[in-house]
Amino acid sequence: MCWDAAEDGIVSAPGTAGIERIEARFHGNAFDLHRHDTYAIGVTLHGVQSFRYRGAAHHSLPGQIIVLHPDELHDGGAGTDEGLHYRILYLEPSLLLDCLGGAPLPFVEDAVVSDPALRGTLLSALAPLDEELDELFVADFIAQLAQNLGRHAGQPAKPMEKTAWRAAALARDYLEENVERAVRSDELEAVTGLDRYALSRHFRATYSTSPHRFLLMRRLQRARRMIEAGEALAEIAIAAGFSDQSHFHRHFKKAFGLTPGRWSALVRGPSVAAAA
């Protein structure tokens, strides 16, 4: 993508189920402390990518990779005056779980990794941001990514019980099918056969987040796509299932580290960035 290196901005790639891809340029602080229920895995292209994560400060240099686990609090921005340029993808944990066949999600303790093989795997998905990712590519990409993350995760944890994994997956599917409305705990109990407390424990063990937060994040992701399509913020709040604009504003900032208005001002499509 080509745009003025002195200008802050975000390029959002065409959507792929379970994967969001962006390219970004920033000067100074970009995102306040926030957390989302996806992996954030990216490559620093230029400048220093500085962020706080799990109680410590980290700095990623050009060519290095950042790996942030789902639902972990973090911020981010440029570590020097020359600014920051990076590409990153947000990966829903369910894609990795399907690939791992019941093994727990890999947790990479080092937030900044130097690994040419992992970098090559990431850039295979992040380089053509103006192109959609086809189904066969995504399957191979996830398999390679799982293998690479596994190498950095160390000793794998004990596999999850199949009953717990299946119940969490049933709850997840039901929540995705009903993202536009409030879902009650007794509905999930009926779908999964577990009481709400056991389900909450199994869901968090499986996806590293709660059922409530999973539903909230799907609404926020939908809202972000609507922003990228140029829809009015006041209309987006209601369409995405929020009670009013202030409710939407508050949750958006907690999840993404900036306000809906700021995201709207920064985001641009791949074709616009290429022409700039």
Protein architecture, described:
GO terms for molecular function: DNA-binding transcription factor activity; sequence-specific DNA binding. This is Transcriptional regulator. With 276 residues, the protein is an alpha+beta fold. Among the domains are: 9-153, Regulatory protein AraC (Jelly Rolls, Sandwich); 162-208. 45% of the residues lie in helices and 21% in strands. The strands form 2 sheets. It has a 7-stranded mixed β-sheet with strand order 10-7-4-9-2-1-11. α2 (116-126) runs antiparallel to α3, α4 (162-177) crosses α7 (211-228) and α8 (233-239) packs across α9. Residues 271-276 have low confidence and may be disordered.
Which key features would you list for this structure?
single chain; 276 residues; alpha+beta; Jelly Rolls; 4-stranded antiparallel β-sheet; 11 helices; globular; AraC-bd
